[in-house]
Design goal:
This protein is mainly α. The protein has one domain. It is built from 11 helices and no strands. About 45% of the residues are buried. The model has no long low-confidence stretch (mean pLDDT about 90).
Length: about 250
């Protein structure tokens, strides 16, 4: 049990900007930390849905609501996934050979493709939430989008061949992907069964994550944290779009 407690607080400290109440690090719990990602998604999604509810109750202006709902998950994660989104955008959109693309991926400088891609991500996210029509049945699917994407993220890092320069390169206990898929199944099936089309948002996010991660890892020759950030940021936009536009 101690390893799982350590793993949870490791995931909190690494993937949330919210101050962690208990700072822990145990190298032997690194794989377990990935299994705890959906729980981090529960915290993140809960705040996201609560914010949507509060903004509705106080009658916040539409544009302010859109801006806050766009920014909330990015700010709560300390923009760590947007950093990966930008790095992979630079590497993939350069359309260079794999060796050059990997060098671009690891370059700390920000290129034009990263800026353009981030601008488009923000634009479409803002447009999606600018079209937000509040209804109580949309809150739980919204809260479960980060759960489904983080279940996918943990499984992808455990199962996909790692990029040679990834901090996750090395052996993984692939059996730990089983609880991740169980949590993913609950996150995508329950809202779809209860809320119908509006509940498909977590499923759409999960499918988008895997599609993006598989394409990126094939293009770059393996999986790493930046690719996960690129896939996760893209997936959460798709999930939000489905939630907003499906009636």
């Amino acid at each position: 049990m101690k390893h799982w407690i350590d793993a949870f607080f490791m995931a909190w400290g690494m993937f949330l900007a919210v101050p962690c109440p208990l700072k822990r690090w145990d190298e032997g719990s690194r794989d377990r930390m990935l299994v705890c990602l959906p729980i981090i998604g529960v915290l993140l999604g809960g705040v996201w849905a609560l914010l949507a509810y509060v903004l509705h109750v106080i009658g916040a202006p539409v544009l302010l609501t859109a801006a806050l709902l766009c920014a909330a998950p990015w700010a709560m994660t300390g923009f760590i996934h947007l950093d990966g989104f930008m790095d992979v955008s630079d590497a993939v959109l350069s359309r260079r050979d794999r060796e050059t693309s990997i060098r671009i991926l690891k370059d700390p400088h920000c290129g034009a493709f990263a800026v353009i891609s981030l601008g488009l991500l923000m634009l479409f996210s803002f447009a999606a939430f600018g079209s937000w029509e509040y209804s109580p049945e949309r809150l739980i699917p919204l809260a479960l989008i980060p759960v489904s994407t983080r279940a996918c993220a943990g499984a992808a890092v455990l199962l996909l061949p790692p990029l040679s320069v990834s901090q996750y390169s090395g052996g993984h206990d692939k059996k730990l992907a089983v609880p991740l898929f169980v949590m993913l199944a609950v996150a995508v099936a329950a809202p779809a069964a209860i809320w119908g089309f509006a509940g498909l948002a977590p499923l759409a996010a999960a499918l988008s994550y895997w599609g993006t991660a598989l394409l990126d890892s094939r293009r770059l020759g393996g999986m790493n944290g930046d690719i996960s950030g690129h896939a996760l940021s893209t997936a959460e936009l798709i999930g939000a779009a489905v939630l907003v536009f499906v009636r």
